[in-house]
From TrEMBL:
Species: Massilimicrobiota timonensis
InterPro entries: HD/PDEase_dom, HD_domain, NT_sf, PolA_pol_head_dom, PolyA_RNA-bd, tRNA_CCA-adding_enzyme
Protein name: HD domain-containing protein
Cofactor field: Mg(2+)
Residues in tRNA nucleotidyltransferase/poly(A) polymerase RNA and SrmB- binding domain copies: 174-231
Domain annotation HD: ranges: 249-351
Transmembrane residue ranges: none
């Protein structure tokens, strides 16, 4: 494995003091898979005490500790490496973090590996001997593209592992082994995932959404009955087959996020964009008719999104809410050959919340996430949008009239200023001059 030069120096020092050094977990798995994305390297050190581990690391820089109970240490000068002593864990409660940790520097490898979730994550790289130790058949499972748990009893102790399996399904496009699949289904049906914090669920969903084929992760959650209500409702909401040959809204959404995964890097906020694509139609279950029509499902979607608690960032919520609200506006404008005023008004509505670039991409992904798309209609959409962008730009025009202008022209009804400024801006978009706009606003003073 490729190991940082400073890390090698530290490893050699640990070995000189009687330690045994293994690299464990995801970095070993990804080395086998030929994936070299930067992430933390987990180092497990045997036959050294916690005090000795810290003492050695302190010779090389500033040490950050996470408490003796976990025996996890980081070195500021080696930011992507986590050092830990071998440990066993016993479940003490329902929450993800409810574990009793027992540190044992001399723990046999066969026991230490049991706390790992999946066989492909239980591989160990022996630094001194430069070889991979595989005690659980992880190499064979990787070769066969199989996701398998290490130990069913330990696996069930942590409900977060169900979401981790979904994430790995999406990232690696592996198949979940039947016993592991049934185990995840049993954990979901027992409502074990209800004890996970919103933060941890959000983090795992983000990794699913940023995977090469995110639909695989959510399809897995659907199959085991672990979808949240706002996504589960999509599975039984059917659409007009002449518009959506793929039928239900969930299937459509899965097609949309897979298309979106190919263009997300072209957007201003790739992760937020993926969330918006996942949630763009969550209003349809509220408004869909027996015939499959879904009038004002965008407005209903904004309403439903208010009750999606796992996203806490105000800026991200504003972005997603705006994308839900306007995700079909551009396609409708193109289909009806809407005039410039409609485009300019839309620029104002999304100003400071979502870029026109991102709105265009979600519109295209929504269009392409169908069982059948007419190429001619798609091409017409791009011609329409490119014309608007070229002539009218992608930013809302700056307002000609501000509050100071109202005061300077003798308008004193300050309680009406917001309403007056909104109308002034719309008159501006219609092409009126500043003088004509101010004359028009005097009607507020004459009421």
């Amino acid at each position: 494995m490729k190991i940082d030069a400073l890390a090698q120096e530290i490893f050699d020092d640990m070995i000189a003091h009687g330690g045994k050094v293994y690299i464990v977990g995801g970095s070993v798995r990804d080395e086998i898979l030929g994936r070299y994305d930067q992430h933390d390297v987990d180092v497990e050190v045997y036959h050294l005490s916690y005090e000795k581990l810290c003492a050695i690391l302190k010779k090389y820089g500033h040490v950050h500790t996470f408490g003796k109970s976990f025996a996890i240490v980081q070195l500021e000068e080696l930011p992507h490496y986590d050092f830990a002593l071998p440990r066993q864990e016993t479940k003490t409660g329902h929450k993800h973090q409810d574990f009793e940790v027992m540190i044992d520097p001399d723990l046999p490898l066969e026991k230490a590996v049991l706390r790992r979730d999946l066989t492909m994550n239980a591989l160990m790289y022996d630094y001194l001997e430069q070889r991979v130790i595989d005690l659980c058949g992880g190499l064979s499972d990787i070769d066969q593209h199989i996701i398998r748990c290490v130990d069913p009893e330990h696996f069930m102790e942590d409900p977060l592992r169900v979401l981790r399996v979904a994430r790995f399904v999406a990232q690696f496009e592996f198949q979940v082994e039947e016993k592991t699949l049934n185990l995840c289904r049993s954990m979901a049906q027992s409502h074990m995932l209800d004890h996970l914090s919103y933060e941890r669920i959000y983090q795992e969903y983000c990794q699913i959404l940023m995977a090469p084929q995110p639909s695989l992760g959510f399809m897995f959650l659907k199959d085991i009955g672990a979808l949240p209500p706002y996504l589960q409702a999509l599975t039984t909401t059917h659409q007009r087959l002449d518009f959506h040959p793929e039928d239900d809204v969930f299937t459509h959404t899965m097609l949309v996020i897979d298309v979106a995964s190919h263009v997300k890097k072209k957007t201003d906020h790739p992760l937020w964009f993926m969330w918006a694509c996942l949630l763009h139609d969550i209003g349809k279950p509220l408004v869909t008719t027996k015939e499959g029509h879904a009038p004002k499902h965008n407005e209903a979607g904004v309403q439903v999104f208010q009750n999606v608690p796992i996203i806490t960032s105000k800026k991200e919520r504003q972005y997603i809410s705006t994308m839900i609200m306007y995700h079909m506006h551009l396609m409708n404008m193109s289909r009806h050959h809407a005039k410039d005023l409609s485009y300019l008004r839309l620029l104002k509505k999304i100003d400071g919340k979502v870029s026109m670039n991102d709105l265009i991409y979600i519109s295209c992904c929504d269009k392409l996430g169908r069982g059948k798309v007419a190429q001619e209609q798609y091409d017409e959409f791009w011609l329409y949008i490119q014309d608007k962008q070229k002539r009218l730009g992608v930013q809302a025009p700056l307002p000609l009239i501000r509050g100071d202008d109202l005061l300077a022209n003798g308008l004193t009804s300050t309680h009406l200023f917001k309403q007056m400024l909104d109308e002034a801006y719309d008159l501006q978009l219609q092409g009126l001059s500043k003088e004509k706009i101010l004359r028009s606003l005097r009607k507020y003073e004459q009421r």
